Structure formats: structure tokens, C-alpha cells
TrEMBL record:
GO BP, one annotated term: tRNA wobble adenosine to inosine editing
SUPFAM superfamilies xref list: Cytidine deaminase-like (SSF53927)
Catalyzed reactions: adenosine(34) in tRNA + H2O + H(+) = inosine(34) in tRNA + NH4(+)
A UniProt-annotated Pfam family: MafB19-deam
Annotated organism of origin: Halanaerobium salsuginis
GO MF entries: tRNA-specific adenosine-34 deaminase activity; zinc ion binding
Domain CMP/dCMP-type deaminase: 1-120
EC number: 3.5.4.33
Name this polypeptide is given: tRNA-specific adenosine deaminase
Subunit structure: Homodimer.
InterPro entries, alphabetized: APOBEC/CMP_deaminase_Zn-bd (IPR016192), CMP_dCMP_dom (IPR002125), Cytidine_deaminase-like (IPR016193), MafB19-deam (IPR058535), tRNA_aden_deaminase (IPR028883)
């Protein structure tokens, strides 16, 4: 199934973040079965609060498509998007979001807010939840456990 294939590739992006001591979240934008945007978290390196995996992937996709409108595209991300990223998903007119792990502290798709299904917006997004959720969550748990161990040691 394509969702599994693309989520595995998003996890590969998340592992790149992990290797750089960044919170391991990865994202892909797919349009017509072509990957047109990739990203992983780079907030620490860039010291920029906006360089989440989704934002990087959306920017690259818009550049590659020469349009901010990503209407027939899908976004794959390993962690439920935050309010900033969810806003960008709506603005880009992403057709479908597939995410892995839920984010009870910052998720704006299902956990804290349900922005993508809010009928007051002029655009709604089809959402597929929990694809490779266990793998996505485990990567985050491992990262934060190692981070705590480094701080304690």
C-alpha cells in the first residue's frame, strides 16, 4: 500500500533529524505518485521555530510545483501536526494528510484541536491517522530518553 511506503520514507527523514540531535519528525509531500517535497525538523540547527518537518516539505513542494497551491497533493508526516503546521496545510490546500503518532501535547488535527475538519475553514483535509504510529512513537521515545540520559549524565 502506498501509505505504508511513503510513511516509511517519512520515517527515514525523521531518522535524519534524530542523527542531528533534532526532534525526530519527518515529512513528505506526494503529488501524482511523485515525491515533490521532503523535510525533517531543523529547529535546533537553524534556531528558527518555524522549520518543522512539514514546513520544510511544504516549502520545497511549492517551489518544485511553482505554486503555493498543493491541491492534489498528500502530506505524510510521522507526528500529528501542530497548530502552525496545520495552518500551513490548510493554506497550501493539501488534499490528504497521513500521519503516524498522535501528539497529545501539541497536535492540532485530533488531539488538542481538530483544525483540518473544522467546517468554518474554506478547505477541509482528508485525514488518515495512525499509519506506522508505533514506529513513529518509538523513535520519539528513544530520542527523548537519550536526551534525558545526556542531561542526567
Amino acid at each position: 500500500m502506498d501509505d505504508l511506503k511513503y510513511m516509511e520514507l517519512a520515517l527515514a527523514e525523521a531518522r535524519k533529524a534524530y542523527q542531528r540531535a533534532e526532534v525526530p519528525v519527518g515529512a513528505l509531500v506526494v503529488c501524482n505518485d511523485q515525491i515533490i517535497g521532503r523535510g525533517f525538523n531543523l529547529r535546533e540547527k537553524a534556531q528558527d521555530p518555524t522549520v518543522h518537518a512539514e514546513m520544510i516539505a511544504l516549502r520545497e513542494a511549492a517551489k518544485n510545483k511553482a505554486s503555493w497551491r498543493l491541491e492534489n497533493c498528500q502530506l505524510y508526516v510521522t507526528l500529528e501536526p501542530c497548530p502552525m503546521c496545520t495552518g500551513a496545510i490548510l493554506q497550501a490546500r493539501i488534499k490528504r494528510l497521513v500521519y503516524g503518532a498522535s501528539d497529545p501535547k501539541a497536535g492540532a488535527v485530533d488531539s488538542l484541536y481538530q483544525l483540518l475538519s473544522d467546517q468554518r475553514f474554506n478547505h477541509q483535509v482528508e485525514v488518515v491517522r495512525g499509519v506506522m504510529a508505533a514506529e513513529s512513537a518509538q523513535l520519539l521515545k528513544d530520542f527523548f530518553r537519550e536526551l534525558r540520559q545526556r542531561k542526567d549524565g
